[in-house]
Amino acid sequence: MINLKQMKKSHSKEWSPYLAGALVGLLAITSVYLTTVFMGKSVFLGASTTFVRAAGLAAQFADPAYVEQNVYYTKEKVLIDWQFLMVIGIFFGALLSSKTDGSFKLENVPPLWKERFGSSIPKRAVFAFLGGIVAMIGARLADGCPSGHGLSGMMQLSESSFIALAMFFGIGVITANFMYQKRSK
Amino acid sequence: MSIDQLLGLATGIVFGFLLQKGRVLRYEKQVSALLLKDMTIFKFMLSAIVVGMFGILALSDMGLITLNHKAMNIGGLVLGGVLFGVGWAVMGYCPGTSVGAIGEGRWHAIFGVIGMVVGAGIYAQTYPFFKSTILAWSDLGKIGLPEAIGINHWIVAIVFTFITLMLFRWFEKKGL
Predict the structure, then answer these.
(1) CB contact under 8 A, B12 and A175
(2) Which H or E run contains A180?
(3) For A158, phi and psi rounded to 5 degrees?
(4) Do A18 and B47 lie within an 8 Å CB cutoff?
(5) Residue B139: beta bridge partners?
(6) Which end of chain B, N or C, is less surrounded by CB atoms within 10 Å?
(7) pLDDT by residue (tens digit) across A44-72?
């Protein structure tokens, strides 16, 4: 019963996705303008390049010479830049929001996953890890993720982003439906 | 901390706050959208796009910012799109939301984050191969849809907004 009460409480604190999304639109406009003014170049919201830089930093720790001669790390530049801090900021923003409205919850396995695939943490970990590898190789090939293509690219009406987003969702829908199809017993 | 980093951090905190308030960081929301059962993330993304689009096009027209299109590289978009679609559905997060999910206590998203860092490392190692094969196939350059189809961008933006509003109406009617 306490749990139910808490769920209700956190439910009432959530914002309409239309409102929260529209505010992200305003944030995107402000952010592009401010980066142009203060950094001398227009920087758009994005997340996946940061994972390249994180991999580069980890590799640098193990073998600096490897990173130096790697073409891709040289191209993307291994440094802790605007976007790297932006991604770290997402963590803190979500922590702040969830801690102050009571929706923060330590969770071992996503409830929906648990319903279908059970509560094993290692099983979830292996799938999430492999999914992460495949998703990131895809995001790098497509040169963006749902932030870079989905939000920033679409806002600029980039031709490539329409294709990227259609591919992401189309294939995502097929994969998710395959995973969650009802077993005929 | 440099001004770049401070700006990035501040932007990220607001972004993460709004992602969490819209409840789009949840595995359930991401996967339910892909199962076409709950359109929360579509509502969130499309609202952000429509609002952001008018401001960004206006700032660009005034010469206050420069647009930065991503390349129309067909091979990369198609193969990358397929891989990302599969990985997204299996992981249940995209790169930006995975980090936010950890912030709201869904610590299991860390496995996806580690996977993505490893994936980025694999890509960096195999990049020369992709560059000389799939990415070399067909690159139509960095172009906007309005220029590609020869229609003024404000008209494209208005049509896009109209379609989005019709979609929203349909979502609400269907209770999605």
Answers:
(1) no
(2) none
(3) -70, 135
(4) yes
(5) B73
(6) N
(7) 999 999 999 999 999 999 999 999 999 99
